[in-house]
C-alpha cells in the first residue's frame, strides 16, 4: 500500500532561518549605506522590469546603491520614529515608504539624481491586466506579417483567420484591445506578436534626506502598480 503523503512532516526551520538572515542582511546593508552615502531618496516605480532595473543599478554602482524589498524591513533599518531612527530625522523616510517603493543611496548631486530619474523610461510589452494605451484593430484581409504556420496559434487567440493559398487571411475586422481597458492574456500575446510595447517602466523620486535637509517631491503618486518578475 503506498505511503500517504499527508503524514509527511516538513520542517520549516531552515526556511525561517534563511528569511531571518536575509532580513538582517538588508537591515545591516541599509545602515552601512547610511554611513557611506551623503543622501537617501525614496522612489516609487511602475511596471517594474527586473532586468532593466538591474541595468540601472549596475550603471550607478560606482556612486550609488539601491534597495528594493519589504517596506517593513527597510523601515526597521531606518527607524520609524525619533526614538529608534538610525540618523537624525531619517525616520521621515519611513513615513513615505509604501506600496512599490525603494531606497536610493547616493553621493551624486541632487540635480543629477533628479535628471537621471526624470529621464529614465524603458518601454516593454504589456502584461495581462495592464490598461491599453491605445485602441488596436486589425483590418480584414491578408496578415502577411505572419507565416502560415502561425494560423492555428492565431486562431487560439480568438482571431478569425483562415489560410488562403498559404497566406493567413483575417476574415473580418478584429479589435485587439481598446484604450483604457485591461488587456486579456490573448490581447497581450497578440500585441507582443505585433511588436507593440504598451508598458512603460518608470521610476519616480518621492523625497530626499541628507544630514541637513529633508525634501518631499511627490506625495500623490499611485504606488499600487503590480510588480513584474521579468
UniProtKB/TrEMBL annotation:
Signal peptide: none annotated. It comes from the Eukaryota. InterPro entries: Mrt4, Ribosomal_uL10, Ribosomal_uL10-like_insert, Ribosomal_uL10-like_insert_sf, Ribosomal_uL10-like_sf, Ribosome_Assembly_uL10. One of its GO terms (biological process) is ribosomal large subunit biogenesis. Its main location: cytoplasm. GO terms for cellular component: cytoplasm; nucleolus; preribosome, large subunit precursor. Residues 126-195 form the Large ribosomal subunit protein uL10-like insertion domain. Keywords: Cytoplasm, Nucleus, Ribosome biogenesis. It is found in: Cytoplasm; Nucleus, Nucleolus. Belongs to the universal ribosomal protein uL10 family. Ribosomal protein P0 is the functional equivalent of E.coli protein L10. Associates with the pre-60S ribosomal particle. This is Ribosome assembly factor mrt4. It comes from Zostera marina.
